[in-house]
Write a structure and sequence with these properties.
alpha+beta; 6-stranded mixed beta sheet
Length: 809
């Protein structure tokens, strides 16, 4: 159905836009923005200034897209307009933004209503459309005193939170305009409801008109699976500190979410070639999206006529009203519950789960345990999995009448509703089993004699072949476990082919010892990284199974998350969460990108690696030694959090094991400790040595292998140790980072800790628990002794190595 743009877009007439007198991205205390001036984001995407909406002559301070000046996304003084063209925006010395009717009026019509103890406040329009106040000299440019993102009007932009912060009490929601001439708050709002299990809802006043259903880790249960969406990703955070919904655009897309005067939540995308907005979707989109249209235990199906029906095992509560199209009284169970004697559950598939206002969750238990807990509580009316993003996990339970359910053709959830035991799935299985057993008993009786005879013959044959058969089966199992042996989702090859566009070169994002890595987008819009075992790879099935076995059992914020695997003939693939900032080496060893990493980011990365290793060595169910820790095996997520990856050569230790020996040296030259490179001995202290080298590389932005200094020919740890002994450690820090003198002590302490990790003697190196403690404290540190491989090298070309017989990757 074609939707009129005039119905859903706010048409604005921006006066005096032919020639603005000012176009800046920031204002200071000594500056003011008058009517006719604009503030422009650094990338030119957004503009901020005074405007008049529709046919109104009133003036408002607002923000709009540069590509579409009629699309206003934020209004400051939406409730108090200025009735002249003399408006002025000023920033006070205490960090308050204020709008005045004219330059001489001392009384503001609007202000940011905040006051801070600041020295040099500045107001800035960011590239994402966030208008912020911050301290100009603050080392953290993302530390805001005030931001427009906390005070949205009718539009949600990429990176803006819709939700509530329980610590500060700050709540952000959208509210529509009154009409196209008046941006004041209208009667419809769009918010995240934090009552019960959080979900998004549209309200008319206090009455809910639409709700999304519960978040399941991938999408809201009331929305169908998205197909082909490469423009934005969803994110929902639910914690004790805050709950919020957010979307983020990808691939330079332009998208916005808004609530219009008709109570419609709309997703708009910008068509670059056509230079116009396109309505991507809207909610409510049909009658079944209207909140609780079918009443309690009613099920709305848009493909039926009428759309409302009762769930299976339920009948209309008021048959006469129901037949007349009045479904408000809902449905009731055909057979009453009897909690004391025992109830059961019936499974309903592809359902938008009920309103979650009266719910209880437990992230720790599985679906089977969830059923058990719900059955014990007579007030529990239904249950479902909480999260389906990586299999099924967690428990979500409902109490009271179940409202606002609908049939979802693609997507939805499996919902288990409490019913009388005779109507339950368990009773049905029991009846079927009795009939099946009765039939089977007769067949078994007739075939018993024949079976005994066959068994005797086969027993003799099996005794002869037992040894061969056992060895063959064991070898085959070790070669490749069956799908059900792995506690990890299995992906079909066709799914990965579609996600990566047949493994197109345009989607190739990396190449390692295992093989090429491709970016993929699954049907639900989730971005993944697909690592393929190459035919020419030095790694094989053992490394593949090793990685699956270890990563599937490890869960930590500083370890990369394995989402699944695929085996199809000779094809072996691992599916990981996608890391938009690629690997650490891509940043620190690139001349340009290295300059963008300030010290707080570098230290955050180092600390994350340390905490990930501590988990592997001490806190995980398995005691893991990575054995190939290096910059290319550290991935970075969108927030630059470090994630340790590539467990193909990892080894697990028993509790009482401390050291092991190997005849095959695996790893990477430059990161191996002396005892491993020369004698094949490895332990947790091997990873500690690799961490020390890696920390020095992050500090200085240079590789250890191939590192050359004009004064001598030593490896990076040797050069760092020389500078440390001479009191010149700061000279090791990358010159762009070194300028921030306020971090000098932390820089020197980090280098000192790294030198303790690369000491020649394994016994003198600290364990990772001690390293993490030292990184987070300011106590006195022991003096480091000489690092491993301290002796000078003979330089051959630009990439010398003082051992050549070992085969590292």
């Amino acid at each position: 159905m074609m939707i009129s743009t005039s119905t859903f877009a706010i048409i604005l007439v921006i006066s005096s836009v032919l020639a603005f007198s000012t176009a800046i991205s920031t204002i200071t205390v000594n500056q003011s923005i008058e009517d006719g001036d604009t503030i422009v984001s650094p990338d030119g995407t957004f503009e901020l200034g005074f405007f008049s909406p529709g046919n109104s002559k009133n003036r408002y301070l607002g923000m709009w897209y540069s590509i579409s000046s009629s699309t206003v996304v934020w209004v400051a003084n939406r409730e108090i307009p200025i009735n002249s063209t003399l408006g002025v925006l000023k920033l006070t010395s205490s960090g308050i933004l204020s709008i005045f009717r004219n330059t001489s009026d001392p009384t503001p019509v609007w202000s940011s209503n905040t006051s801070f103890s600041v020295q040099n406040p500045v107001a800035e329009l960011r590239e994402n459309g966030n208008f912020v106040i911050r301290e100009e000299n603050d080392d953290n440019p993302d530390k805001f005193l005030w931001q427009s993102f906390d005070h949205p009007t009718d539009t949600l932009l990429s990176g803006m939170k819709l939700g509530k912060n329980f610590v500060t009490g700050q709540e952000s929601h959208l509210s529509c305009w009154k009409n196209s001439d008046d941006p004041a708050r209208g009667e419809y709002s769009y918010s995240m409801d934090s009552t019960g299990y959080p979900h998004n809802a549209i309200r008319k006043g206090q009455n809910v008109t639409f709700q999304t259903g519960a978040w399941n880790g991938l999408r809201y249960s009331g929305r169908p699976k998205s197909s082909g969406n490469t423009m934005y990703t969803h994110k929902v955070v639910i914690s004790k500190e805050e709950v919020y919904y957010m979307f983020e655009v990808i691939n330079s897309s332009v998208s916005r979410l808004m609530i219009n005067q008709s109570g419609k939540g709309q997703r708009w995308i910008w068509l670059q070639q056509a230079q116009k907005w396109k309505l991507f979707y809207e909610v409510p989109s049909d009658n079944c999206d209207n909140y609780n249209i079918c009443g309690a235990y009613g099920n709305c199906n848009i493909n039926n006529g009428p759309v409302c029906g009762c769930l299976e095992k339920f009948d209309p509560k008021d048959l006469d009203s129901w037949s007349k199209g009045d479904w408000g009284n809902g449905c009731t169970r055909k057979k009453p519950l009897d909690c004391q004697k025992g109830d059961g559950f019936h499974k309903y598939s592809h359902i938008k789960v009920p309103d979650t206002l009266s719910t209880w969750i437990d992230e720790r238990i599985n679906l089977k345990e969830c059923k058990k807990e719900c059955l014990k509580n007579c007030s529990c009316m239904a249950y479902a999995s909480l999260n389906v993003s990586n299999g099924e996990s967690g428990c979500l339970q409902w109490f009271g009448d179940l409202k606002d359910m609908r049939k979802v053709s693609e997507g939805g959830r499996d919902l288990f509703i409490r019913v009388a035991f005779s109507d339950s799935d368990r009773a049905k299985i029991g009846a079927t089993l009795i009939i099946s057993l009765s039939v089977a008993a007769g067949v078994c009786l007739l075939g018993l004699t024949l079976a005994v005879c066959i068994w005797k013959i086969r027993k003799n044959l099996m005794l002869k072949k037992s040894e061969v058969s056992f060895n063959s089966s064991l070898k085959e199992h070790n070669k490749m476990s069956q799908k059900e042996d792995l506690d990890l989702p299995y992906f079909c090859l066709s799914t990965l082919v579609q996600a990566t566009n047949n493994f197109a070169n345009d989607n190739k994002i990396g190449q390692g010892g295992f093989g090429p890595v491709f970016k993929g987008i699954l049907e639900d819009g989730q971005q993944v990284a697909v690592k393929c075992l190459s035919e020419t790879s030095t790694q094989g099935t053992n490394e593949f199974m090793n990685e699956v076995k270890f990563i599937a059992k490890l869960q930590h914020r500083n370890l990369v998350r394995l989402l699944g695997y695929c085996t199809n003939g000779e094809n072996k693939m691992l599916i990981y969460e996608f890391m938009p900032n690629k690997s650490l080496d891509w940043h620190i060893f690139d001349e340009f990108r290295n300059k963008l990493l300030d010290w707080p980011k570098r230290f955050h990365i180092i600390d994350g690696i340390a905490r990930g290793l501590l988990y592997l060595h001490q806190d995980s169910r398995l005691r893991i030694i990575h054995r190939d820790l290096k910059a290319s095996n550290i991935l970075l997520d969108i927030n630059m959090n470090s994630k340790i990856s590539d467990f193909g050569t990892a080894r697990s230790f028993l509790e009482d094991e401390t050291t092991a020996n190997t005849n095959q040296i695996v790893g990477t030259f430059g990161y191996m400790p002396p005892e491993y490179a020369l004698d094949g001995l490895f332990s947790v202290k091997s990873d500690v040595f690799s961490f020390g080298v890696l920390a020095l590389e992050i500090v200085c932005g240079s590789r250890n292998r191939g590192y050359i200094h004009g004064d001598h020919v030593q490896y990076l740890p040797g050069h760092a140790w020389r500078l440390h002994r001479e009191g010149r450690s700061l000279e090791l820090v990358h010159q762009n980072v070194r300028r921030k003198s306020c971090y000098a002590l932390e820089m020197m302490r980090t280098i000192h800790i790294a030198l303790l990790c690369v000491q020649q003697s394994r016994e003198e190196r600290p364990d990772m628990a001690t390293v993490v403690l030292m990184l987070g404290s300011k106590g006195e540190l022991p003096m480091p002794s000489q690092p491993g491989f301290f002796s000078e090298r003979n330089i051959v070309g630009n990439d010398a190595c003082d051992f050549t017989v070992l085969q590292g990757r």
